[in-house]
Write a structure and sequence with these properties.
There is one protein chain. By secondary structure, the chain is α/β, with parallel strands linked by helices. Helix content is 54%, strand content 17%.
């Protein structure tokens, strides 16, 4: 059974979804209530999938997605109006309220994405991100500020972080 992080600011929502996924045999779930918990858990345990709400007390899920390694995929379960605000095309979406079968179908699609892509960023992608950060840092930014600019570019253009890095390098 695949490991999945179930992350909602409200613990009750997370518990309900975890129960559905585990009882159906779809996934073994790790429950988180903040974006920071998700980041740590993904990195420590190499969890390839996150099922989450629109935002947490410590930030929106869309920004969290940009901080996750490329092997990690996300399914966002939220109201239609919130989902309409999500710009990143790589995030799967499920409009809430959703039926049990809709949730299971969406998680199966999420896990299919996990198995369809190779794990991790390539060395070329990592190098490109490092070079773009270095270029931005040469303009007087800290590494954290450079990373945030890359993230914002990625979000604004609806592309992965490595593609945003390439775009920055091409322009400078």
């Amino acid at each position: 059974m695949e490991k999945v992080i179930v992350a909602f600011a409200g613990l009750q929502n997370g518990k309900r979804i975890r129960e559905i996924l585990e009882r159906s045999g779809t996934a073994a779930c790790l429950l988180c209530t903040s974006a920071d918990q998700v980041r740590r858990t993904v990195h420590e345990q190499q969890v390839p999938a996150v099922v989450c709400g629109y935002k947490f007390a410590d930030g929106p899920a869309e920004l969290l997605y940009e901080d996750l390694p490329s092997f990690c995929h996300m399914l966002m379960v939220a109201s239609r109006s919130q989902l309409d605000l999500v710009r990143n095309p790589d995030i799967l979406r499920l409009s809430a309220p959703a039926s049990r079968s809709e949730l299971l179908g969406a998680v199966e699609e999420l896990l299919a994405q996990v198995h369809a892509q190779p794990l991790g960023r390539s060395q070329e992608e990592r190098d490109c991100i490092v070079q773009a950060k270095a270029k931005l840092m040469s303009e007087g930014l800290s590494e954290e500020e450079a990373h945030r600019i890359l993230q914002k570019k990625s979000m604004a253009d609806g592309v992965k972080l490595a593609r945003a890095a390439r775009m920055i390098l091409e322009r400078w």
